[in-house]
Fold this protein.
Amino acid sequence: MSLLRVDAVTRRFGGVVAVDGASLNVPKGTITGLIGPNGAGKTTLFAIISGFVTPSAGRVVWKDADITSMKPHQRARQCISRTFQIVQPFAGLTVLENIAIGAYLRHADRSEAMRLAADVAKRVGLAAQGGQQASALTVAGRKRLELARALATEPELLLLDEVLAGLNPSEIRDIIPLIRAIRDDGVTILMIEHVMQAVTNLCEQVTVLAQGRVIASGAPRQICTDPAVVEAYLGRGAAARMQAHA
Amino acid sequence: MSPRGLMPMLILLAALALVPAFGSNTSINFLVSALIVALAAQGWNLLGGFCGQFSFGHAAFFGTGAYVDAVLQARYGVNAWAASAVAIAAGAGVGWLIGFLSFRAGLRGSYFALITLAFAEVLRISANAAPITGGATGLLLKLDARAANFQFASRGVFCLIALTCVALVLALSVWIARGRLGAQFAAVRENEDAARALGIDVLATKLRAISLSAAVTAAAGCLYTQYFLYLDANIAYGSWISVEALLAVIVGGISTPAGPIFGALALHALGEVTRLIARGVTGIDLVLFGLILIAAIAFAPTGLAGLASRLRRALG
């Protein structure tokens, strides 16, 4: 069953078509990857799914209900939670307070929210930094904080916008099992990612976006050898040249 | 803020409660004026400090509270207590309306500050022209010192009432700061997009903040009316109260529950002293306020409350 369906969504910014008739299916309980070269429209598509940008045409369907015109905070209440590619911490608050703001969405009581925040902090490996100002965290720490805040809202669908970007290989190795564990707890995940090692490692299915259009979609192994995908990344004729060399 | 962190504030409030019993009329007058500004500043802090929306126009709320209270009594013979309750509600209403118009249009930062200033000026000029407010001659309330009229023969009693109001709003602020509402205010202050992504309705949260803030500042306006029994447009809607409310918060410690009280008392004490020393130089206290604001922003961005906690850390 598909939890989230994006139906032929288009978004124009003036003369630029950032997303052009893109469709996407996220089955419940899976990790779905969204990849594509820079400027392909991945982040715009994410913004459309999370409600920060309204599409010029097309629909976003969540559990069989049309949510195209729903505001971001309403979608968060409907259990769709996102992280930001450029991290957006509440800089003046501590790490725990940051996470608690996510937890307050479903828990009005302070002690409950703080307890949940502490649990989530432990889970993402921020327990030791709980009392620090969010602005004092390292890049890897801030990425974890993004993840923690989103998790604290107890989502059914987690939208991860390049949580691995800017991390070093050992930090990436640390965070991959965490993402898999979140899925194993029943949270469906849609992730934008450039780190292919993570995509092939984590995702059951991958959708490839190039110049706003979906050019391929399927299992990661299949995608990597798809001529259209290779050409989108490496230029026209690249697939044929690689074939010739092989 | 932890309950322990509030101890100095509670001791200070208890000490102030002794002033009416032992202090002179001058000292009580001083204290009442300072407490009225403190209350207005506490209101400003709920919006500006907790929620991060800086207003230059809290006079709009102070004046609405003061005028509604006065007009209802002077023109319609409404009981003073009932008039005050209506005035506070009216202040909240004006706050909601100004908030709705400006936040819905997406005004933030200096744009929001300027639009609030504009609203306050519009109200000041209207109040100066309208017959119902007595225009430029102002509005005089009948002196009839009975508790039923919210007027007291003894200044001390009034001082205690003002002190109670300040203490109640202090308790409210602490409660908000520790709960969900305070967390939502802080989230909106720190990062609106992140707040939205975490399910916070940013517009509704700002409207809650400005209505609450306006209600508290309107209550300060009511106290002013009931104590001085005279109003004109430059008192009620004049920019003096907008400036003192925000100055008290910034000097005292922004977004801390106790900051506005410290700030208002410190500023008023300083203002009095300067006026005593530089007698005859009109407006010298305002010049000093300007210098203090610059100094506070440059050297103590967290205000007196921040200085105190830094000192405490340094000492032990």
Observations:
- Chain A has a mean pLDDT of 92.
